[in-house]
Amino acid sequence: MNPYTLSRATLEQGVDEVRRQAGLEIVVFEARGPEDFDATLAAMARDRLDGVLILADATFYLHRMRLGEWCATQRLPSIWGGSGYLEGGGLASFQGDFGELFRRSATQVDKILRGTPPGEIPWEQSTKFELVLNLKAARALGLKVPQSVLVSADEVIE
Length: 158
Hints:
Layout: H1 8-22, H2 34-46, E1 52-54, H3 58-62, H4 64-73, E2 78-80, E3 92-96, H5 98-113, E4 129-134, H6 135-141, H7 147-152, E5 155-157
Parallel strand pairs: 1-2, 2-3, 4-5
Antiparallel strand pairs: 3-4
């Protein structure tokens, strides 16, 4: 995670919920930018992870090829915050539908321009999420994606 984008406290709340529900051991690694990548990736390699979740972040997006190649070299399945990240070899993306988010944002901007104070506009969360699978990455990792997952994907990259 990039602590400039998301506070650790905010992330930890969500992580604690996943730990309880899924019974997974989750380790959070931070990288503010490319200057932190070498140390962070070395720490991740030492921990012998079973998989990686890379949160959506502009800095990570700019360096998606490097990060994706590292995941592939380490033979780590990786889930990313947006399908554009999969160019670097990521396995899957599960993220809110950006097109839908932008359309909803336009509606909120319209309300503000028509005089509604921003504080009076209800907060909205994504209700539509996109699952994108990269079968090339799955094959490179020696993974067989179950048919039930394939048919539920919004997009499959061959």
